[in-house]
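TL;DR need structure tokens for one chain.
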Amino acid sequence: MNIADLRKSYEKAELSEEASHADPLRQFDQWFNEALKSELPEPNAMTVATVGSDLRPSTRVVLIKGYDERGIVWYTNYGSRKGQELAGNPWAALQFHWVELERVVRIEGRVDKVSAEESDAYFQSRPLDSRIGAWASPQSRVISGRGVLVANAAKFGAQFLLNPPRPPHWGGYRLNPDRWEFWQGRKSRLHDRLVYRHEGSTWVRERLAP
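>> reply
TL;DR here they are.
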């Protein structure tokens, strides 16, 4: 099959100004809950895009762990590539792609670390293996083989037993949005795109051409 011949007609739904919320957080909450109710595979998966000091962009998939009026939260290793890039440039972009619903949400804004108390609370809620894994993996660094991870997990498992503390290099980030875009696939590639941008203390909603 020729890749160029792969096509799909998007006809599941529409997104109008009249039917959408004036507040993008409410619109996101509606779509996120619809994705949950649809039992999609990993509806909480999102792509995080950052830019390094060399101006090269990079992306990776992480899992959203919370959202409210303060922003979108996820957790990771602060020493990872994304952590290092955010330390030098705190602006990032997120993307959710709910293929089965023919929807995409794009979010842009500034990223800051969540409080130590928030990171501690979430870390303690994780399964034991995941808590040990946070100690065992020097994320984004070159290792000689998988045996390094297995050995590290055994070492820290023996050291901390059932109560590993949160590593100092591990915790949460929160992106505070100043731009949202909601994309709904439509027939004939005439997709619906509504963008929300912050002006002062209010959100301005506009339609973009597909």
